[in-house]
Amino acid sequence: xxxxxxxxxxxxxxxxxxxxxxxxxxxxxxxxxxxxxxxxxxxxxxxxxxxxxxxxxxxxxxxxxxxxxxxxxxxxxxxxxxxxxxxxxxxxxxxxxxxxxxxxxxxxxxxxxxxxxxxxxxxxxxxxxxxxxxxxxxxxxxxxxxxxxxxxxxxxxxxxxxxxxxxxxxxxxxxxxxxxxxxxxxxxxxxxxxxxxxxxxxxxxxxxxxxxxxxxxxxxxxxxxxxxxxxxxxxxxxxxxxxxxxxxxxxxxxxxxxxxxxxxxxxxxxxxxxxxxxxxxxxxxxxxxxxxxxxxxxxxxxxxxxxxxxxxxxxxxxxxxxxxxxxxxxxxxxxxxxxxxxxxxxxxxxxxxxxxxxxxxxx
Length: 363
Known about the structure:
Layout: H1 12-19, E1 41-45, E2 48-51, H2 52-62, H3 70-96, H4 103-113, H5 119-128, H6 133-153, H7 162-171, E3 177-178, E4 182-190, H8 209-224, H9 229-236, H10 240-243, E5 248-253, H11 254-257, H12 262-269, E6 276-281, E7 284-294, E8 297-298, H13 304-332, E9 336-338, H14 339-346
Antiparallel strand pairs: 1-2, 1-9, 3-8, 4-5, 4-7, 6-7
């Protein structure tokens, strides 16, 4: 799925949520398999702790408060913990690569994050999350560091050649013969009803109108911070078929778009390529990315818009694959101990969060 949806401006809610990722104490583990220093230690990444408090705060950031079974809550926290582990690995890599965030960059991002909220509202929001401005700045710095690592190690290393474009065109020639105008779009769908099966990569599924709204807002905030649309769609979209493709719906004829609900129809037809719009209808929410537009007729790569569209599609697919491969390769080079996962396995999914793991295992 193309990554054209990267909007670089940070938002307040995302940064406040990211601040919940902090609070992990640092420790250097001795040789061998490290033991948890306390029941509050839920994971180690090369000896650096991720604590229960850190996970709980991040979980509250991403999940609206609602009635959940013990199993649903545990699954959600396990997903959050895995995300925190990946972030910690990327932060460690940033140190190796000597990647830093300048104070001026951080100041700009911090001010951008709170520019649309009054000082009073800002302070109330911080207080409601038990956070300080220092927490917010530090969480933002870590998020920016992780994004810089991905930019250098993944995004900048993807090269699309003319041969790649030609091969893609030949393999999909029929799709470039447009009987009518089309719009290339991608989507992330959030509904207020919980499904009876896993519908996306992470298993995240809203179960009420309040949770659906909170989830949609969280996803918009992540997009504003630069998170790839395809990754968020694969992890969070509640439309299983498109979620498997990173939300990509391909080129949709204008005649088909005209049949959609007016808010969705207008959002697509009246937005420029690269735009991301949130459309809410009857408690459900669709985040739609306008990837490209194309007019009727036979197209070929000599046309700049066709070449650009093919390049964007190939780049998105490769970036999604390379990002996943890079994170997995990085994980092979660090020592990760997930005590919470051990605990769930040992207790057959019924472990109380307050219990310390009895036997750690490297993951």
